[in-house]
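// run 5 | inverse folding | seed 20
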C-alpha cells in the first residue's frame, strides 16, 4: 500500500480513487480467494491498469500477501511477518546496548522480566477484584465474562452486541441434524449448528483467524437457545487461567525449594489471597470470609503448638530467599574495572611522588 504512489501515476490515483478501493479489497475480512480474484480483475479493467507491470507482478504472488489467502490458518491475524523480531528488539532496546557485557545483559533481562511480571500481577488483580459491565441481558455474555480475560472480553462483548442489534436470521433449515442459519449483515454469512454438541461453523471463518466467536456465530447461538460458549470455541490463550497463578510463587522465581511443605504453604497463601481479592467489593461476603479465616486460625492454634526453637537464622534465610545459607562466603575483587573515583588519590601518594607529579605540570607564564 505504501508503494502505490511510487509505482502508479498520480493522476490515476486521484481520479479513480484507486488507493481506497484497493485498500478495501485487500483488507476485506470476509473475502474469499475466488472473490478477490474476480474483484481485482474488475478493478483493473475499470481503471485501465490490466497491463501495469508492477500490479501484475503483485497479483501473481497474491497468495503471499493478501490476507484472504490465509483464512484457513488458525489465528493468522495475530502476527505479521516481522512481528516476532520487532517484539524482541523492543523488549531490550530500552535497557540494553551493544556495549554491555554478558553479566549486564542478564541483569537487563531480569529487570525486563520483572517488569512484565509486575504488569501481569496488575492485570490479575484487576480481573480478580472487579467485574465487567454487561451490555446485553444475554446469558452467553455473562458466561464470556467468566472465562475470557478483560481485553478479549471487551472484543467479544462488541460482537455479541452486534449480533443482537445488527444481525438478523430467519428460520433455520434442519439438514442431517444441523441447523442452517443465514445471517443477514453487511454481507450474508451462513452459520451451521450441530444440535448434538452445539458445534458451529461459519462461512466467514473469523473464529479460525482470531480465536473467538464472531457476530454470525453469536446470532445463530441466540436463535438456537445456546447460553454458553462451548469449550472447543474458547481458545486457551484467551482464558483467565491461561497463565497459572502458581508461576508467581517464590519457588518458580528462584527454583530451589521444591519440598512438599513449601508448595502446600505457598498454595494456601495464594488461595487465601485470591478469595480476598474476589470478595473485596462485597462487604457482606468479605465479613463472612474473615469469620471463616478466624475460625480456621483458632482451630490451628489450638491443635498446633508454636515452637520458637524450630526456626533458627538459617531457616528464616532459606524461607525468604529460597536458598540455604552458605557456611562461608568467598569472593575475588574483579580486575581491570574502572569505576568513578577508582583513580589514585593525592593523599595516598608519598612525599617523593608528589614532587614528580607536580613537576609534570606545565608552568603558567601569565602573572595576572
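// decoded
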Amino acid at each position: 500500500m505504501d508503494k502505490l504512489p511510487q509505482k502508479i501515476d498520480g493522476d490515476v490515483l486521484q481520479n479513480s480513487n484507486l488507493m481506497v478501493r484497493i485498500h478495501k479489497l485487500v483488507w476485506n475480512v470476509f473475502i474469499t480467494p475466488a472473490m478477490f480474484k474476480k474483484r481485482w480483475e474488475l478493478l483493473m479493467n475499470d481503471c485501465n491498469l490490466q497491463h501495469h507491470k508492477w500490479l501484475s507482478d503483485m497479483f501473481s504472488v497474491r497468495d503471499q500477501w493478501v490476507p484472504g489467502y490465509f483464512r484457513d490458518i488458525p489465528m493468522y491475524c495475530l502476527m505479521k511477518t516481522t512481528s516476532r523480531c520487532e517484539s524482541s528488539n523492543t523488549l531490550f532496546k530500552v535497557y540494553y546496548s551493544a556495549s554491555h557485557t554478558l553479566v549486564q545483559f542478564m541483569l537487563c533481562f531480569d529487570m525486563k522480566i520483572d517488569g512484565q511480571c509486575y504488569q501481569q500481577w496488575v492485570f490479575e488483580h484487576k480481573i480478580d477484584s472487579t467485574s465487567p459491565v454487561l451490555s446485553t441481558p444475554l446469558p452467553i455474555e455473562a458466561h464470556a465474562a467468566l472465562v475470557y480475560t478483560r481485553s478479549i472480553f471487551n472484543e467479544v462483548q462488541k460482537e455479541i452486541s452486534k449480533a443482537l442489534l445488527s444481525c438478523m436470521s430467519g428460520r433455520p433449515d434442519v439438514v442431517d441434524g444441523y441447523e442452517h442459519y443465514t445471517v443477514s449483515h453487511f454481507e450474508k454469512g451462513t452459520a451451521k449448528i450441530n444440535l448434538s454438541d452445539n458445534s458451529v461453523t461459519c462461512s466467514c471463518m473469523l473464529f479460525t483467524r482470531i480465536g473467538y466467536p464472531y457476530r454470525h456465530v453469536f446470532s445463530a447461538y441466540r436463535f438456537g437457545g445456546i447460553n454458553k460458549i462451548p469449550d472447543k470455541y474458547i481458545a486457551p490463550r484467551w482464558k483467565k487461567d491461561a497463565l497459572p497463578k502458581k508461576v508467581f510463587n517464590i519457588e518458580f522465581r528462584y527454583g530451589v525449594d521444591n519440598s512438599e511443605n513449601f508448595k502446600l504453604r505457598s498454595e494456601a497463601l495464594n488461595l487465601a489471597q485470591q478469595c480476598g481479592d474476589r470478595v473485596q467489593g462485597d462487604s457482606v461476603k468479605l465479613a463472612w470470609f474473615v469469620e471463616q479465616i478466624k475460625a480456621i486460625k483458632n482451630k490451628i492454634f489450638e491443635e498446633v503448638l508454636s515452637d520458637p526453637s524450630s526456626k533458627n537464622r538459617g531457616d528464616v534465610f532459606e524461607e525468604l530467599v529460597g536458598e540455604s545459607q552458605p557456611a562461608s562466603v568467598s569472593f575475588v575483587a574483579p580486575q581491570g574495572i574502572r569505576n568513578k573515583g577508582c583513580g589514585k588519590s593525592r593523599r595516598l601518594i608519598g612525599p617523593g611522588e608528589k614532587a614528580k607529579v607536580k613537576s609534570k605540570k606545565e608552568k603558567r607564564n601569565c602573572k595576572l
